[in-house]
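How a chain folds remains the central question behind the approach discussed here. In the encoding step, the backbone of a single protein was reduced to a row of integers, each denoting a local shape. We regard such an encoding as a compact summary of how the chain folds. The sequence in question and its structure tokens are set out directly beneath this paragraph:

___
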Amino acid sequence: MKESAEMKNRDRVITIPVLLNEKTFRNFALFDSFWVKKRWIRPVVFAVLMIGFALVCLLLKKEQSGMIAAVLLAIGLGLPLIYIGSFLSQVNMLAIKNHLSPARKVYTVILQDKGIRAVNHQIKEPDLEVSWKDTWKAFYRKDCVYLYISPARAFLLPKGQADVADEVLRKFLRSHIQ
């Protein structure tokens, strides 16, 4: 009750100066690519098809079918592993390029009843303002909230960085995002 009264007195403004580190960035990149954008589907379908073709080769029991099955199996498992390894390598290089170790302040998100305002600390640009009706989704993870203002753009709100308790932040977001 005390937190609700405090938020009403402050005109329901939550400020989150976001300090981003490599781990939080990496976790978000994995979540965004493989959960939100579902980029795991193509490598899995490819692997299943190649394994299926390898099994068909083995069942045919023709000359050289064992070798062809082994090649298909190696390609079917190898290429998806290379895809995932390449993705993880790119994420790590991007985290290094953005100097996220140690954690650094990248932006400040200000949540109000009328909408979201974000101040970028990396580059000089006008503040971004988004109304709640234009906000896409919020995903609540154990260490961070991913606040998507569109399917292609999100703000990371790490746990413990808001000027209110994490549960108050969650309730505030849930009351504004449909």
In short: The first helix runs from residue 2 to 9. The mean pLDDT is 91. The domain at 2-20+104-176 is CATH 2.30.29 (PH-domain like).
